C-alpha cells in the first residue's frame, strides 16, 4: 500500500514493506508528476524490487548543504541577508573546526558547546537568533530529503523578555525636524500606522485605498507581515496627503516607498537620528 502526502509543498510517498513504514520525497510539487512516481513505486513493490532499506541523508555533506542553503536564501531576496550570512558562516566554520563533515553528525550537544565557546557573553536575543537560524536551515535540509529529521528540533532557545520604549510627541517632532526627506516620510508613515519597516518596504500601490482611507498590509512572496496575517489599517487625513504624493504615477504592482536598497537602510538612518535626541 502506497499513498501521497504533502510536506512543505513537496509531495512525498508513504509506503510499507514487511510491516515497516517508509517515507520518501518525490522531489516535486507537481501532483501529476508525483502520481507518476507513485505508480512507478507501486509496480516495483508488486515485483518485489524494493526491499526494506530506507533512503537516508546520513552521508549528505554539511559544506555542500550550507553552500546550497546560502544560494537558496540569496536568490531573489529583497531582505538584507548579511546577518544570516554571518550566522551561516559561523555555524559552518564551527562544524569544520570540529570535524563535522555530514549533516547527520550535528547533535544538540554540539549546539550547546557552540553556545559556550562561540557565544559566551552574548545577549540572549543573539543566542536565540543563532539557534533559530540553524533550526530553520536544517528544516530545509529535511524538506530537501538530505536528512530524515531535524537533529536539533528540541534544542531550547533563550527566553526573551521584551521591553518597549515609546517616543513622546516632542521626540517625534524633533526627529522629523532633523530628518532628511526620505527618512521624514518613512517616520511619518510608521508613526501614523504602527507598521513595521518591513511592512512599509513591501507595501504596493494597490494596497493603499485612498477612497476608503485605508491601508492593507499583505504578505508578498517570502515576506509575511506581523502575525503572518493580512490586516487593514485606517489612514488619517494628514497621512492621506502623504500617500497621494507617493502614489502619483505609480502602477498597482509598484512599491509605495522604496528610497533605499533594503529595509535595514531605513533602520540605520533612523538609528543615526536617535543619537541626536
Q: Tell me about the largest β-sheet.
A: 3 strands, antiparallel
- The H-level CATH homologous superfamily of the largest domain, spelled out, is Intergrase catalytic core
Mean of residue pLDDT values: 85
**What's the SSE pattern?**
EEEHHHHHHHHEEEHH
The CATH topology annotation of the largest domain reads as: hpI Integrase, Chain A
How helical, in percent, are the residues?
40-55%
Number of helices: 10
Number of domains: 3
Q: Architecture of the largest domain, according to CATH?
A: Orthogonal Bundle
Distance between the termini: 69 Å
The chain-level structural class is mainly alpha
Note the beta-strand portion.
5-15%
Secondary structure tally: strands? 6
Work out the radius of gyration: 24 Å
| Stretches with pLDDT under 50, minimum 5 residues | 52-57
- Specify the CATH class of the largest domain: Mainly Alpha
Describe the global form. globular
Strand order of the largest sheet: 1-2-3
